[in-house]
Amino acid sequence: MKNTSGQSRVAVVLYELLNPIPLGFFVAAWIFDILYLKTFQIMWTDAASWLIAIGLIIAILPRLINLAQVWITQRRLATPAVKIHFWLWLIAVVIEIFNAFVHSRDAYAVVPLGVILSTVVVVLLLIANVQLAVCTRVGKGEIA
């Protein structure tokens, strides 16, 4: 099951299907952290903890597929934008692992470090996705 560029179709489908899901979980956790900061209702930080954990679990498979595609199978064809996207996602996942540990503490101990880490992760992931989209469109000649 290979296409003409050498990527497995199953890997491409799984990557495209699962890759956006963790971003949604992390953005929701960030919003819940902000809600906790404003209201000090413990349920917001508990929900944020679950969202971070589920987002990290779902992020494993797309990251492994991306690792194989960028650094092993498509090493020569990977553009700098794809490599930057990979590194920003990797940094964001590592920060989110630390954020999961912060969220495992008492609810009052989550503020402000948990909110700061959630904000950094969301910003990194948005930069990664926007730079990849812009560079891909420029590469195809859609944006001058």
Automatic annotation (TrEMBL):
Membrane-spanning segments: 12-36, 48-72, 84-102, 108-130
InterPro entries: DUF2231_TM, UCP029509
Entry keyword set: Membrane, Transmembrane, Transmembrane helix
Pfam assignment, any one: DUF2231
DUF2231 domain sequence ranges: 20-128
Name this protein carries in UniProt: DUF2231 domain-containing protein
Organism whose genome encodes this protein: Kosakonia calanthes
